[in-house]
Write a structure and sequence with these properties.
Blueprint lengths: L23 E4 L5 E4 L2 E2 L5 H11 L6 E2 H9 L7 H16 L4 E4 L2 E4 L8 H17 L3 H12 L13 H27 L3 H14 L4 H13 L3 H18 L6 H11 L3 H4 L29 H16 L6 E7 L6 H12 L7 E5 L10 H11 L11 H12 L5 E7 L2 H4 L9 E7 L10 E4 L5 H12 L1 H6 L1 H10 L4 H13 L5 H9 L11 H13 L4 H10 L7 E2 H8 L3 H13 L4 E4 L2 E3 L2 H14 L4 H25 L22 H10 L1 H10 L6 H10 L2 H4 L4 H18 L2 H17 L3 H18 L3 H16 L3 H18 L2 H17 L3 H18 L3 H16 L3 H17 L3 H17 L3 H14 L4 H18 L3 H18 L3 H14 L1
Amino acid sequence: MDGGPRVPEQRRSGPAAGAEPAAVRFGVLGPVRAWQGGEPLRTGSPQQRALLAALLLREGRTATAAELIDALWGGEPPSQALAALRTYASRLRKVLGPGVLVSESGGYAVRGLGDGALDLTSAQELTARAEKARGGGDLGRAREHLNGALALWDGETLAGIPGPYADTQRVRLEEWRLQLLESRLDMDLEQGCHAESVSELTALTAAHPLRERLRELLMLALYRSGRQAEALAVYADTRRLLAEELGVDPRPGLRELQEGILRADAGLAEPSAPATRPSVVQVRPAQLPASVPDFTGRSSFVSELSGVLSAEAEAEGGRVMAVSALAGIGGVGKTTLAVHVAHRARPAFPDGQLYVDLQGAGPSPAEPETVLGSFLRALGTPDSAVPDSLEERAALYRSVLDGRRVLVLLDNARDAAQVRPLLPGAEGCAALVTSRVRMTGLAGAHLVDLDVMSPEEALALFTRIVGGERMAAEREASLDVVAACGFLPLAIRIAASRLAARRTWTVAVLAAKLADERRRLDELQAGDLAVEATFELGYGQLEPAQARAFRLLGLADGPDLSLAAAAAVLDLPAEEAEDLLESLVDTSLLESAAPGRYRFHDLVRLYARACAERDEQPPGEREAALSRLLDFYLATAAHVYGIERPGDRLVDHLAPTSYRGLRFRSRAEALDWLFAEAQPLLACAQQQQRDGRLRRAVDLLWAAKDLAESGANGKQYESAALALRDAARAIGDVRAEGRARTALSNVHLAAGRYSEADEEARRAIELAHTVADTTPLSWASTDRGIIALNRGRYEEAERLLTTARDGYRADGNLSGEAGALCNLAQLHQRMNRAHSAIALARQGVEIYQRLETNLRLSNARYSLGVALTRGGLLREGLAELSEALLMFAANRQRLWEGTTHFRIAQLHLAADRPAQAAQHAEQSLAIGFIGGDLIRGSVLNTLGKSLHALGQTDRARACWTEALLLLEQSEVPEASEVRGLLAPLDAA
């Protein structure tokens, strides 16, 4: 279709009588085209379009007939050139309408090229904006403008236009496009996007091998991605190519970069400019929780903390590198004070404020790498650019903050070790830390010990909540209340809030209740006892239904609970449960994390559990509450599994549940629930290690296996599976142990830990036979078969995979059978049975299509694509793999996306398209993949072959060297192939 992709489609309709015709728009950054009102216009023959192009590139200036004849035909025009020129102009005038192509001064011109009418002019304007933004230090907006300019190109400039003028302009505009690309890539590296830039730079250096600036950028991107050997190999390849093709040495900048890499120059490791992330709009996070409107007292602490920041800000030209750590018992108001000070300091930190609850007082403190991932995304880092390891995330975090003025509030920290990776580490930033322990391990931190309020401050806080009139009328009783609260801010807030909500109570009534020693401790010393006494005050004032909800909700592990999960714990309809939960929020005993989600403060949860052990009657109600929560998650996850995998009978073999789960109207809604509930769901599974609930907990892992395969929650899933396996073994539950081992095998397999996966699957099969539990047999046999396949033990693999297929068939599990057929297809590929491999994969695709499944169909299309590739049917294979790639992305299977990029790279290599192969291999390395180090070795092997085909021998050698190390560790036949590839290079 000869339509312009950037012009919105509109219905063709003639203008109303008397209406102005729609403006004509033109494109030269691709085929020469024209549109009016969104409809393409017929611009005629190549020569006629050459005339239009010559006029458009003059951007409204008049061109004489002689100039145009020279542009179209050069020094040897035809005898009737002038007549032909006039004919072309006449035809164009009719197509474009009146007043567009005009005759004047013996020549022609195109009028009306303002306001974005010509894509070239738009690109020039966007480039000017980018230069201005970059000059002002706004790299994010500069990159946005450059991307907008580059997006205006639609293939080859002036495509299909003949003539010497078009040839000259085509070269000029292509050079300009490459310069814009280099500028944008340079900004990518300044912003820390090293890993994601490698793929694009690899493709560009293959297409433009003599362009040294691209080579320089590729070296820097590789070096900053931890691939030093490859970076140096790029230089060696470039030097050899320049010598062979041009007889010259690399330019000084390239040589200096190589020398810097050799000596590990610290200046190369970090971006050289303020590292704003490459986002559509520069992100300025504002994550501080709201400051309480009735903040009272603490004036000395506010002055002290604010003074530290202001003193530092006035020194060194306004550059701040300050860490302040507040310590105190739970409920003393550390968070409230820190948030208040942070809000006051906001003007000094114009680039944003970050906040996180580190959950340090609970059993599961936040992992620093998880927090860093959240911070990086909040600062504008794309998901694909967030590294995996703690060290890499911490380094990128410091790079992103370099040159910016950001305040980081780290609330509820466990210890200094948890905090250190989260400190900005750069001038211009500051951190406030709150914790129950003194942060003596933070070098240079300003330590503040926060004690209880003074009587005057405590009374002022109480007064602000209950009102001045009530306090003034009963001042003595008010003093008694705050004294009974131990002058702890949280206790005062809870008591005063309850009084404010009960207009019929007097302050004396509340004071009398608090005077009852049965409801509070005689003394408030320090630590947990003081917190317990504080919470006892609020708990003792709850209505019976509220108190029951408080006790039972505190039993659940996990960071928070949804309303539906809480309703299951309480065995109440959602509406009633919500009323109770909101009433607990009003008393400050529960927090509303987000609409429909609730969480306890860590210490409040501990107190709630203590209350449950002490007060819940009958005692079995605690177990029943946790059982209902487990049933809720299992029933709902099984429903999600069924939606994702129609025809898979695994859900029929799960433990029965007595509490009904949620139902969903669509796949998207089901997946949203699963991934939103991942952490509390897995925490629930890991918590349920007692006999009677253990089997259901293991089956919950089975139903939620998508969480492991996606790569997003693999570590937590593995932790839960390990805990349940050990618990089952400890109590002698063979069935539960076998199923837990099957889940563990799947996790190990996805991570490429083949020995561990094989051992877990082997034991799972043994245990399943012992108790005649047939369900794990096919799953575990599949895992062992895949391991044998990847290790080159093809006869063993065929036996195991055939066993799995037969087991699924006997169970009537069509989805499982289709998966087994796809696995057998992969085996037949390795055994060079191309015809049967394709046939098996097609059978799998057909079954999944009949079942109308989406996620599993993507796996089947992947298998078919690989089989077609091995069979030499590359066009069909690319179509299947491309479709699988889109489906994996839609199903949030990030690791499968990366694996599919790897297979597409292999296909392009087989099709003798090494540049495309290298680009997809780099994308696979950037995203990740199923199979861990083994597949990484294979990806690097493919990348090495692609680079070698492109003449980049030294970089190919670096890839193969790393690949060989990984493949030898995995004991696979591919290692021999890589040795063979390296041998001639090493001998040279």
